Structure formats: C-alpha cells, structure tokens
Amino acid sequence: MTQPAKNTICIWYDRDAEEAAQFYAATFPDSHVGAVHTAPGDFPSGKKGDVLTVEFTVLGIPCIGLNGGPEFKQSEAFSFAVATAELTIRRLQSPRPAVTKKGTDSCWLSGLC
Hints:
Blueprint lengths: L8 E5 L3 H11 L4 E7 L12 E8 L2 E7 L18 H8 L20
Parallel strand pairs: 1-4
Antiparallel strand pairs: 2-3, 3-4
C-alpha cells in the first residue's frame, strides 16, 4: 500500500497555475495533472469557472498550484532540484516555446531558459 505524502508543495501563481502544472507534467517523468478546482460563482477578483487551484505531481512530489493573484511574484526563491543524467538535461534544454511566458518575468525552468 502506498503511503500518503507527508508534505505537499503549494506554489503561488497569478493566474497560470493550470498552464504551469501542464508544463511540469509534460516535462518531467512521474508527473501528472490531477484535480482542477474552479470558482463556483463570481468573486471580487474573478468569475465563476476561473481556476482557483490545481493538484499536480512533479517527479512524484505532490503539489498544489494556487491562483492567488499578482501579490506574490515567481522567483528563484523556490526551485525543484532534479538529479538526472546529462542526456536528460539535454532533452530538457531542447527548444520549449512554452517555458518563458511573454510579458512576465517568470520562467518555469529557471536556468534552462
């Protein structure tokens, strides 16, 4: 029987938690997007159906993407440190147009962009 995770990483996004989760799931092995939770009704900074949180796994590590608004920006203060072979690094460094978001200073694979 698999033990439930003792920790879950919560990452704050402005509005693109689902896009980030899909990117991580497509980039790293043992990664996937789980439940996507949307707003049941309109609220002060959004509308019914807006994505609020996204459950996803990166390299087997459970994560939650929180669309919390623009108050906190993405930075190098948080990162996934991945031990991998050089061949895998080359695969990750291949051109990925979705990695850097135009108009923002966020890069979901900092150091590989």
